[in-house]
Structure formats: structure tokens, C-alpha cells
């Protein structure tokens, strides 16, 4: 990619003007609707794709031309394939292993926290109760990931503003 001054950037953009591409995986439709509603307030900063199962998200990300997310928000307590199972599959896959995974869960069990980090989750967030508190939680999440993920990070072609 060429900068305005003609310098090659190697496909990287050294600013935070592009959208943060987020994938959210949660089996609870009510939680997904809340996530979509909250992230809609930041639609000038993010693109979001939601999945109701870990398998559906993995299948989508494994397609050859899939645009991989900058960060994946993952519920851990899901039927059939738990968030822990999703983490195991992702970390064993060359293409998916470097995607940061943030657990977004209602679980406050210490053993869930330990297991998430032992599977290389990037962060463990306990879902806030209520729209206003969840909105604040998302603001903090976005501030962190926009700063830490978008600096010098490749631009997926389908997430350009």
C-alpha cells in the first residue's frame, strides 16, 4: 500500500482510522441482540459479525477468503462446542492462532478464568448486567483494542470505511 507521500507501507496503516473488525460468538440470542445494540452505538468505529455457535464461527473463519477479525469475543458456556473448545481449535490452527480471543462470559468461577488463560485467551471479561454498564464495558474494550490492535495492523479489505 502506498502512502500519500509515495512510501510503501507494506499493507499496514499507521493510524486508527480504519474500523475494528470484531466477531462475537454466543449461543444466547438475547445476549447477541444486546451486543449488536451496544456495538451499533459505535458503528463509526467497528464492524461486527455474530455467530450463535463456535462451530459456525470456526467454519466462517476457515474459508479461504475469509476476512479474519481483529479480535474475537467468545462466550465460554455454550452447548455442543464450548468456548474452551473453540479456543483449542483456534490455537491449533496456523491461520487462526494469532487472533486475540477475549472471553465474554457470565462465569465468575476461578477455574474458568484459569482454563481460559491456560488456553491463551487474551482477556477474560465478565458480562456486565444491564445496558448502561455493558455500554461502559464495551467502551473500555474498544478503547483498548483500537489502540493496541489497529496500530501497524494489516487492513482487511472488507473492513475499510
Automatic annotation (TrEMBL):
Entry-linked Gene3D superfamilies: 3.40.50.2300
Keyword Amino-acid biosynthesis: no
Pfam families assigned to the protein according to its UniProt record, in alphabetical order: Response_reg (PF00072)
SUPFAM superfamilies: CheY-like
Keywords: Phosphoprotein
InterPro entries in the record: CheY-like_superfamily, Sig_transdc_resp-reg_receiver, TCS_response_regulator
Modified residues annotated as 4-aspartylphosphate in this record: 75
Residue ranges annotated for the Response regulatory domain, each copy included: 21-142
Domain of life the protein comes from: Bacteria
Name used for this protein in its record: Response regulator
Amino acid at each position: 500500500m502506498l502512502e500519500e507521500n509515495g512510501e510503501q507501507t507494506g499493507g499496514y496503516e499507521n493510524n486508527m482510522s480504519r474500523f475494528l473488525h470484531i466477531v462475537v460468538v454466543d449461543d444466547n440470542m438475547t445476549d447477541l441482540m444486546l451486543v449488536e445494540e451496544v456495538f451499533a452505538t459505535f458503528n463509526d468505529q467497528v464492524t461486527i459479525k455474530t455467530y450463535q455457535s463456535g462451530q459456525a464461527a470456526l467454519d466462517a473463519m476457515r474459508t479461504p477468503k475469509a476476512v479474519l477479525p481483529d479480535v474475537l469475543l467468545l462466550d465460554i458456556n455454550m452447548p455442543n462446542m464450548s468456548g474452551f473448545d473453540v479456543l483449542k481449535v483456534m490455537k491449533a490452527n496456523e491461520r487462526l492462532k494469532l487472533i486475540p480471543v477475549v472471553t465474554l462470559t457470565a462465569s465468575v468461577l476461578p477455574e474458568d478464568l484459569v482454563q481460559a488463560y491456560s488456553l491463551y485467551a487474551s482477556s477474560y471479561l465478565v458480562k456486565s448486567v444491564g445496558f448502561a454498564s455493558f455500554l461502559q464495558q464495551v467502551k473500555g474494550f474498544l478503547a483498548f483494542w483500537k489502540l493496541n490492535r489497529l496500530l501497524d495492523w494489516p487492513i482487511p479489505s472488507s473492513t475499510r470505511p
